Amino acid sequence: MEPQEEEEVSGSGDGVLDLSRLHLDSLAADDDVGGGEERRRATRQLYLNHNRLAAVPASVCLFANLRLLDVSNNGLSVIGEDVTRLTQLRTFVAKNNRLDETSLPKDFGAMQLEVLNLSGNRFQEIPLQCTKLRRLQSLSIGGNRLRSIPAEIENLTSLELLYLGGNFITAIPPELANLPYLSYLVLCDNRIQGVPPQFTRLHSLRSLSLHNNLLTYLPREILSLVRLQELSLRGNPLVVRFVKEMTYDPPSLLELAGRTVKSRNVPYSRCDLPSNLLNYLDLASKCPNPKCAGVYFDSCVRHIKFVDFCGKYRLPLMHYLCSPECTSPCSSNPQSDAESEDESSVPADRLQRVLLG
Ligand SMILES: [Zn+2]
């Protein structure tokens, strides 16, 4: 082992110390660790992956200028406080260990990490310390046992890449849409049933991986993701034909009256009506069917509309209509419902790759 380290020291000189695959179960804290103090001070990247470490050795904090630490593929169940003393550390990789939410030190969130990879561990939830890493640009917790994403994810305002594929996540919190620089979002191989309409705020999103989930439709707001270049949807039970809406509660007399007042522009003023009715009339939503001038209040029909992408794929998008009659032109011939404003608002070149098959 020693000769290898000597080679490293005299050899590279690029600040990389590779101690991977050496069957190490510890890293002694004596002066020879990593080839002496001078060498340790010069080390920027330390690779301890594929060893037999049960904990991150306390002696790593002797590498005061470390920027990258890789402790992947050990038997790690604990990351000790020592790691938090590495003030220069920007990239921490601890893939394929036995870590869970009890494994991270209390002050982990105070580190200045930019890249954190905890994929292939045993996390059932994202540790709250991770949501405090304000400089974090890349977070990977794929292949764990996550069931949810905490709303605190919105605190990671520098995040550009989020990889959470291969977990048991059932829902996406709307707070995820508050990440202004998020460009790559991987949520494939989960149990997600819906995409929140707030996704329209993800202006930087270039790639969205949703394959192998439980999606049946997408929110129509997804059309406003103007930067999106890659969308993967294969392996979802996406509806492929018009679905007749089963649940439609008939509008109340109040709603019928309100619809008539709004759609026929019946004039009214502050003196004519009590304030609760004035407020109610303000809540009217315009029916999105371009052939219908109607409005609705509480009673509406969930409607799946198919929109062409790239002239090749038809995506099911969800929107609301004022009544079942409003859908009948579509239900009789869904394919002819293609010339509405949605179509022209989607340039054919917007989505370069839509992966459905
Ligand atoms: Zn309508």
TrEMBL record:
<keyword id="KW-0433">Leucine-rich repeat</keyword>
<protein>
    <submittedName>
        <fullName>Leucine-rich repeat-containing protein 58</fullName>
    </submittedName>
</protein>
<dbReference type="InterPro" id="IPR055414">
    <property type="entry name" value="LRR_R13L4/SHOC2-like"/>
</dbReference>
<dbReference type="Pfam" id="PF13855">
    <property type="entry name" value="LRR_8"/>
</dbReference>
<dbReference type="Pfam" id="PF23598">
    <property type="entry name" value="LRR_14"/>
</dbReference>
<dbReference type="GO" id="GO:0005737">
    <property type="term" value="C:cytoplasm"/>
</dbReference>
<dbReference type="InterPro" id="IPR003591">
    <property type="entry name" value="Leu-rich_rpt_typical-subtyp"/>
</dbReference>
<feature type="domain" description="Disease resistance R13L4/SHOC-2-like LRR">
    <location>
        <begin position="60"/>
        <end position="163"/>
    </location>
</feature>
<dbReference type="InterPro" id="IPR050216">
    <property type="entry name" value="LRR_domain-containing"/>
</dbReference>
<dbReference type="InterPro" id="IPR032675">
    <property type="entry name" value="LRR_dom_sf"/>
</dbReference>
<keyword id="KW-0677">Repeat</keyword>
<dbReference type="InterPro" id="IPR001611">
    <property type="entry name" value="Leu-rich_rpt"/>
</dbReference>
